[in-house]
Specification:
The chain has 459 residues and is of the alpha+beta class. It contains twelve helices and 13 strands. Helix 4 runs antiparallel to helix 5. The longest helix is centred in the C-terminal third of the chain and has 44 residues.
Length: 459
Amino acid sequence: MAVEHPETVEMAVDITPEKDGGVMKEVLRPGEGEEGPQPGDKVFVHYVGTLLEDGSQFDSSRERGEQFSFTLGKGEVIKGWDLGVATMKKGELAKLTCKSEYAYGERGSPPKIPPNASLVFEVELFEWHGEDLSQKKDGGIIRRNVTAGEGYQTPNDGALLEVHIKGKVNGTVFDDRELIFPLGEGSEHNIPEGLETALEKFKKGEKSVIKLSPKYAFGDEGNSSLGVPPGASVEYEAELKSFEKAKESWEMDQGEKIEQAKTCKEKGTQFLKSEKYKLAVKQYKKIIDLLEYDSGPGNDSSEDDSDMEEQVNLAANDKGLDDEKKAESQKVLLAGHLNLSMVYLKLQDSASARDHATKAIGMDPTNVKAYFRRGQAQLNMGDPILAQKDFQSCLDLEQNNKAAKQQLMICVQKIKADKMREKQIYGGMFEKFAKQDQAKQKAEAKCTPTEEKEEEEKM
């Protein structure tokens, strides 16, 4: 059922970019204000669809009693809708007359919409929300486009960005600057996590408003240097002026991969020294991504035979991989696993620390640092027996390792304490059972031969 509207309506206008008459719009009831939805917004509408030829109705969200929603400008609906709804205001009611090429084209949408059919939609726009860019879709990173970008490419991790940002908190500007920085290292430039995540989706020349919840902004601590209070939501107007994409690993030869991995190692070490552990993890992980399949077998003791064969084939197919390059690649990759193990210990992620230490041991079974770090991780995870074995391996390889001796003593004490605790727990249980058995035996001993006979007759 269509919505009642005033008899006087605006004349139909052609809203197609080519002005080919493909989508004609009549405003049946004006909307509120000047603002309308932008590409990427999630819009909520009611509609009634009819065939232009005979006026028969083929669909109606109103009859279903549920608003229809879609993301504007993403091709989720027919072209006529993307064009038409983008011109509407909140509360507006409009009639969109769409030629077949802006609707369902030559195929139609059987059985209700025949081929080459022109359609009429009465559409009412209720509201819209910005595009949610958060990975968990929790509404923490909302983008509203101001100016569309160019082309289809977006920055990748490590791309060099040239941006202009203006940040506001509670309506007050706290940041207004132009800067150049590598994507993934924004925290070094007071760029919050959520803004970096959004910039990954920008196209060159795009300008958008980004709203961040505290979780994706500056968290519970805020940012005193910028004047952002603790637990504050913030809003940025960001413009991506240009970017230079980082070279993908598949675009590099072996020599380039090794050099890039070395650069990542240096950056990671700098971040580690300055206690910026999350940034250090990012850099060390890049080493693994660059080199793990190019160093040949032996860098992961947990892999099965098929994985090993795949690594051998990948390494053999790289024409630039000679023995010298392979050794150099192995050395940098080993450092990547060792350093990741250390950083994860700092971050109290013992499971990841253990895993990377294990990979390092798979590459170099005589590496003392790898056994030591795995031992620390095992001890942190409450397994002193496995930790003891790792610290003992350290001493087998390096007899005068004082740190390993100290950790070994801690393991021995821990194992002893665990045994004592088990003895107290289970010892008490055994004592209880023993007393019950004694009481039963005493009761049986007091039973007379006559009573025993009577008991046997009862059975």
